[in-house]
Amino acid sequence: MNANRVILLLGALLALSGCERPPVVAVQHGYRGTGMVEIYNPRLLAQQASINEVPASQPAASQDGPRASQIFKNVKVLGDQSVGEFTRTMAAMTQWVAPQQGCTYCHNPQNFADDSIYTKVVARRMLEMTRHVNADWKSHVGTTGVTCYTCHRGNNIPAATWFAAVPQNPHSMVGNRAGQNAPAMSVGYASLPNDPFSLFLAGSENIRVAGTTALQSGNRQSIKQAEATYGLMMHMSRSLGVNCTYCHNTESFANWSLSTPQRVTAWYGIRMARDLNDAYLTPLTSTFPAMRLGPTGDVAKANCATCHQGAFKPLYGQSMLKDYPALMGSPHPTAVAEPGAASAAPLAPAPAASATSLQAMAN
Question: How many CA atoms lie within 13 A of 240 on its CB side?
């Protein structure tokens, strides 16, 4: 009997290991009875507080005087800034990305204009990417914007990035598992495909659970595609610290007219991640040394967790951009297919979360 009791006790503990110890906080943000509730664990929120603290801004600098490109050599991105603002931004970047190594993480101390250190070449491109996000992806980041700190948080490499999954051995006895049944943090330890990012955040596959037309009409949406979609949704939920109803209404997950405005923001966020991975990060593959590449030889790329890191808004919506105007950039509309469009078109402002505009967002 004692042995049986021990077994039952261990079984009960195992069953409860996936549950959260109360108290938890429920925040209703939709109609009653529709499951539109977010559940927050105060203990987990407290643990995240330090991760989302915003560092003090560098002292303000004069915008007057000569431009950086007139004084310093080989300035290709921030040359339009005053010398004071340029130096201030460089000091902030050091604090955000390489607080231990200092300026020499990117610069040759004997010649700051030298481009022989790969991190300098990468940093320049990341500056261009940051300005691009702030100028051209307001449909996702709004006026809050991003800085280097949004992703790096004092680390040389952002804490959350991804590499392409290692291809499965084609001669495996278990057949092609398509990345499934190998639980990983990327999909909340589910048995779903654990690399939905290559499909959706580097590739441009449709994010679909069910087709919108009959099979006879050319509907090619598959169960396999639905499983990859669920994998991406698990990642987004975990990355933002929210559940499905942050964007979706349980009455009909697919119906845009019932969805929350956050679903529109997320729609643009997915396309922003694709843009950044394909236009800025992947082209740097040959710039990085082998030690910085993934097991298949690709560079580390961005997903939702790279910026959000468990918060529904990065840094809980605190804006650092207002204190660093050099990172705002100038608008250059991104070519992105509008909802329902067959070809790429200049990026338009995010549509309002109305029944008409949301229903039109088919993909």
Answer: 22
